């Protein structure tokens, strides 16, 4: 018998029921559902298929998998062959990752997937295609997925033609990312109720070729539109819609005139509108259930241009009399010397119960701006303060005499927040700009009951304990103080 390094080399038998060295193959004796569970842990369909060399018992097990994952580099012909040979009663999840995949490569397996899939399709393509434009790469014809429940397409600007007919009967989730749309069928036609009667969540991000978008849906609950720069007209009629996010849309400088939007969503609960807004062209219907509003960031210091941007951002919250939770983002530009304090142009806010204040101070003092916002919303019951440190501003040091120190009257002016019961602060680093505001919060909130502090990830345990003792000295016996070093972000949902 052949020996290697003093040990016997045993031969692997592939006979059914025979294990290594002629012993009993107990692994192959397991029920199919257990073997399928083992192969699913691989999350790699080609590797799962190669396990057929272990024993005859394994040769068809991979074809019974309810989930198929094809990693980067998988030959599209193998994907097509695997889908053709697949014998599971239902294919509930298909994941395909590609690098610089062309429409022809995807077309080799996508129609088969449309017929077989009864669950989730996730196709993610990466790579630059050597700088070729989407039009030069050709277009992928998307088949109708009649039985799929979720489709995620991240195509890295591959051209996509939507199916002109067919009903996505069971589709509840659709995500389109980095896609170049081509006609003749429009996205509006595909995602509205006649062809997507079960659609509940729709996300459209960085999709080109979408100048006008209209959706009429009776089932839609969540809609996110992000980075649709050339979008000019938006019409939404969604009787069940609860969450709407419109982020960085209508931003193409070549767009002529104001963006036109008409939103009819009577059940809307959360509105995140961080895009251009003008009440004469962006129309919201009655939204009696609205609970949470987020608007464009406000520039704390700047010139007339930024003052004009703030004016448009402030018009949206003024559209409402009461907002349970208002998320306000304060943004500090790099100071160049010709800026002025813009916050005083904010003269009115809705009645707010919970204020989420997100501060991107870039090393500047943010006491004056925060004071002004709190003065405008003195009836709040909860304050959630998120201190954001951008990577490019970590090395920034605010210079002596910086305009951010003005106006300084916030440090001495009286302010009473009689209803404020809870304060949560995330990202605290204990800087000279942070602690004065925190100390004054304890004085302004006369009925404060609970304070939660989440230190920035950069704070060591020893520094955290030092800050903890300092913050406790600001507090009163009736206030419950909680501290954490976990980092992360506050949930505004």
Automatic annotation (TrEMBL):
Taxon lineage: Eukaryota, Viridiplantae, Streptophyta, Embryophyta, Tracheophyta
Protein name: F-box domain-containing protein
Keywords in alphabetical order: Membrane, Transmembrane, Transmembrane helix
Transmembrane segments: 352-374
Keyword Membrane among UniProt keywords: yes
Native source species: Triticum aestivum (Wheat)
Alphabetical list of InterPro entries matching this protein: F-box-like_dom_sf, FBL15-like
């Amino acid at each position: 018998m052949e020996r290697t390094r003093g040990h016997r080399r045993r031969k692997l038998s592939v006979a059914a029921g025979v294990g290594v060295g002629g012993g009993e193959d107990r692994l192959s004796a397991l029920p199919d559902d257990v073997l399928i569970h083992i192969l699913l842990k691989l999350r790699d369909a080609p590797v799962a298929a190669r396990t057929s060399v272990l024993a005859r018992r394994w040769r068809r097990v991979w074809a019974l998998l309810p989930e198929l994952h094809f990693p980067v580099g998988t030959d599209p012909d193998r994907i097509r062959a695997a889908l053709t040979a697949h014998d599971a009663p239902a294919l509930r999840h298909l994941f395909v990752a590609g690098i610089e995949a062309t429409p022809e490569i995807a077309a080799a397996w996508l129609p088969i997937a449309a017929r077989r899939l009864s669950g989730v399709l996730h196709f993610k393509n990466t790579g630059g295609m050597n700088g070729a434009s989407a039009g030069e790469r050709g277009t992928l014809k998307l088949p109708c997925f009649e039985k799929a429940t979720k489709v995620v397409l991240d195509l890295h600007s591959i051209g996509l033609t939507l199916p002109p007919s067919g009903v996505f009967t069971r589709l509840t989730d659709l995500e389109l990312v980095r896609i170049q749309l081509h006609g003749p069928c429009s996205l509006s036609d595909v995602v509205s109720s006649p062809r997507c009667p079960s659609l509940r969540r729709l996300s459209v991000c960085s999709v080109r070729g979408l100048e006008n978008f209209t959706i009429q849906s009776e089932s839609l609950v969540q809609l996110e539109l992000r980075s649709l720069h050339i979008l000019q007209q938006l019409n939404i009629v969604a009787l069940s819609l609860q969450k709407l996010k419109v982020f960085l849309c209508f931003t193409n400088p070549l767009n002529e005139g104001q963006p036109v939007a008409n939103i009819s969503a009577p059940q809307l609960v959360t509105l995140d509108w961080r895009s251009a807004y003008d009440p004469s062209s962006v129309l919201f219907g009655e939204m009696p259930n609205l609970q949470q509003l987020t608007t464009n960031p406000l520039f704390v210091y700047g010139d007339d241009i930024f003052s004009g941007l703030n004016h448009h951002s402030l018009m949206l919250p003024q559209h409402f009399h009461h907002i349970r939770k208002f998320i306000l983002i304060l943004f500090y530009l790099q100071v160049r010397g010709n800026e002025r304090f813009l916050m005083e142009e904010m003269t009115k806010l809705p009645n707010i119960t919970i204020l989420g204040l997100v501060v991107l101070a870039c090393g500047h003092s943010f006491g004056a701006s925060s004071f002004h916002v709190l003065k405008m919303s003195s009836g709040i019951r909860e304050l959630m303060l998120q201190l954001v440190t951008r990577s490019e501003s970590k090395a920034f040091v605010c210079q002596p005499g910086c305009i951010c120190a003005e106006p300084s009257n916030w440090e001495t002016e009286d302010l009473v927040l009689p209803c404020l019961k809870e304060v949560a602060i995330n990202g605290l680093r204990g800087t000279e700009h942070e602690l004065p505001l925190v100390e004054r919060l304890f004085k302004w909130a006369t009925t404060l009951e609970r304070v939660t502090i989440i230190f920035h990830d950069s704070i060591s345990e020893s520094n955290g304990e030092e800050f903890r003792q300092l913050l406790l000295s600001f507090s009163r016996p009736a206030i419950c103080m909680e501290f954490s070093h976990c980092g992360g972000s506050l949930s505004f949902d």
